[in-house]
Amino acid sequence: MTSKTIYYESVAYFLEKLEQPKSNFTDFAYINLKDLHVPKELINLKVTCEFYCIMFNKAPNNLRYGVQEYNLQSGSLAFVAPNQVIEGTENSNSKKGWILCFSPKFLKETNLLNTLDRFNLFSYELNTALELNPELEKIIHSCAERIANETTINDEFSKGIICSELELILRYASRTLQKQLQLKAITKTNDIIVSIEKILENYFSEELQLTYGIPKINYLSDCLNFSDKYLSNLIYKITGIKTTDYINQFVINKSKIKILSTTKTIQEIAYEMGFTQPHYFIKLFKKYNNVTPKAYRELHQ
Fold it and tell me: Which residues, at least 6 apart from 235, have a Cβ–Cβ distance to it below 8 Å?
């Protein structure tokens, strides 16, 4: 990939370089990917522009967006803001979709200009395109079709209608973004729980409990580079139980294997699990299982 960067100073200049017809609107254009042929001299270059872009792709391809890959899955929306750097390859044009280009000048004296940043869609942080379900894809595509139609009508109402349809696309996209971020947050928190369980498993496999006793919250937070308070709040938010209960339940559940798979006494098992006082182990076991360790062994013999 060459380091050369092409700067598109206006929508009109962008259309000219892509050998597209002039737009009926200053600082705005609708481009159908089916009709777009990117000249060879513009392939594999870094690109930056002085306007916003919204691109819909019906087929998957990849761009580099900032320093990261920007994955455009089939049926997805991508967003680029002014002065952001993107890189594409020869196969970046799927021929199935469209691009909406509009500068801040086009939005001048409209409510959309003042609210555009609130949608939080035009950001390097959003390094993956928004995937649309078939129903939403149909809605977004209808908005784009109405915009395309208005570019041919171009009467006194057209600009207002185009801005209204643009805002509608952004509102639907923002809803989708919120759902995707919520799902990502859930996945992230689940990953944290998996990490905690691995830490606890390693703790016992290395027999650290024989030296340090039952693991404490500060051990987990140190391993994860979190504060004790943050980790405690996070565990409670995910599991609905306090950190001490979470750790104790993990230890007690682990002790069940020894209770059922060995003939060691309950006292011996208590010491092996990191308890200095067997009666405390028995107390915790009964708290979480409603039976004593001895009764638990007898019930499962």
Answer: 193, 196, 241, 242, 243, 246
